[in-house]
Design brief:
It is elongated and about 80 Å long. By secondary structure, it is an alpha+beta fold.
């Protein structure tokens, strides 16, 4: 399953990402010289009637579209060659397209990954419906506690209705989970309604390590409360789309929160994962069936979009940052600053890949985790 899961997960997601670049580029009349799934030596491929070389390459850790005028797969511009290009070389060249067109072509890759996430989540909502509390009168009412409950130890009682956390109103039980799960060990103040009045209760979120059936350990926050039972209400396409957008926003917020916590030291860097971890999770979720696998695909697709939109030169976000600077200055950055920035960006990306791969290998069982 590990061997099958990794290419089955990343292959289509990378292909769709690059297809976003390709389709918008073709729409704007930019010629694509190569479309590669993977990096390195070509394993198989063909050339279509438009002159684009479609190929499968040896290293399955990404892909690229090489447009006319690109000096390399990372689309790093060479200002001198761009300025001295002949009229024939300018026709269909990526770097001679307008600034707006170049920005849209670059953004199209991450946008495609976001659309994939939205489509998968919307499909889930249409299949299963949206979760709603069975008895609306019992929304956010504590009906029982877990065996070890930080909320009960802090003074929360059965029958209390939780209405706010740290002054922010919570209207659904999901709101409480979101304010707790990503913040193990944090001190919060829960406002509850009890006997017709309100009461502020300080609670320290429990720091819990949970292990799944495959031995993967996750560090999460828990306060140990249960609310009323949930049911699922059927939804149409429009409502499912709205819910998928909402859920995608929540996932992005969790990603940003996780990165912040790693940067400030609230979480260990060992919680990061690279290609080995992705392959492991892909195989595990594939063994659980197509729904679990597609759920992981939605999350990884969103991660691909998020990472690619980071303002690091050599990534899509880096190109967009350069285009933003070009729009403000009304001219491209100088060749020296461009070269230095791209070299630094490539170094950062390679260093990060090596770092997360080292963490992946160190977590393997035969290294003692």
């Amino acid at each position: 399953m590990y061997i099958i899961g990794f290419p089955l997960l990343l292959g289509p997601l990378v292909t769709l990402h690059e297809l976003g670049h390709y389709l918008v580029g073709r729409w704007f009349g930019v010629k694509a010289e190569a479309f590669s799934v993977g990096f390195g030596k070509e394993i198989a491929g063909f050339t279509d009637k438009h002159g684009t070389r479609w190929k499968l390459s040896a290293l399955p850790l990404g892909g690229y579209v090489q447009f006319k005028g690109d000096m390399n797969p990372a689309s790093v511009p060479n200002p001198e060659e761009i300025a001295n290009a002949t009229p024939e070389e300018r026709e269909g060249s990526f770097h001679h397209a307008s600034l707006g067109k170049r920005a849209l072509i670059v953004f199209a890759g991450p946008a495609m990954n976001i659309l994939v996430t939205l489509a998968i989540l919307a499909s889930f909502f249409m299949m299963f419906g949206k979760p709603v509390i069975a008895d609306p009168e019992q929304t956010n009412v504590v009906v029982r506690f877990s065996e070890d409950s930080a909320a009960r130890d802090a003074g929360i009682a059965e029958g209390d209705r939780i209405v706010a956390i740290d002054g922010d109103r919570v209207t659904e039980f999901d709101d409480i989970q979101e304010r707790v799960m990503m913040y193990p060990g944090k001190d919060i103040v829960m406002r509850v309604e009890r006997d017709g009045g309100t009461l502020d209760v300080p609670v320290t979120i429990a720091d819990v390590e949970e292990e799944d059936r495959f031995g993967n350990v996750s560090r999460i926050g828990r306060i140990g409360i249960y609310s009323s039972a949930m049911s699922f209400e059927p939804v149409g396409v429009i409502e499912a789309t709205r819910l998928s957008v909402e859920q995608t926003g929540k996932l992005v917020d969790m990603m940003v929160t996780g990165i912040k916590q790693i940067v400030v030291g609230d979480r260990s860097v060992k919680e990061l994962g690279g290609p080995v971890t992705i392959g492991k999770f892909a195989g595990e979720q594939l063994s659980l069936g197509p729904l679990a696998f597609f759920n992981l695909a939605a999350l990884i697709s969103l991660n691909l979009a998020f990472i690619n939109l980071l303002p690091i030169p050599a990534l899509d976000g880096g190109h967009l940052a350069f285009y933003a600077a070009e729009a403000v200055r009304r001219k491209p950055l100088g060749p020296r600053s461009t070269e230095v920035a791209y070299r630094a960006g490539v170094a950062i990306v390679l260093a990060l890949m090596v770092f997360v791969t080292f963490i992946d290998i160190a977590k393997l069982p035969f290294f003692g985790n």
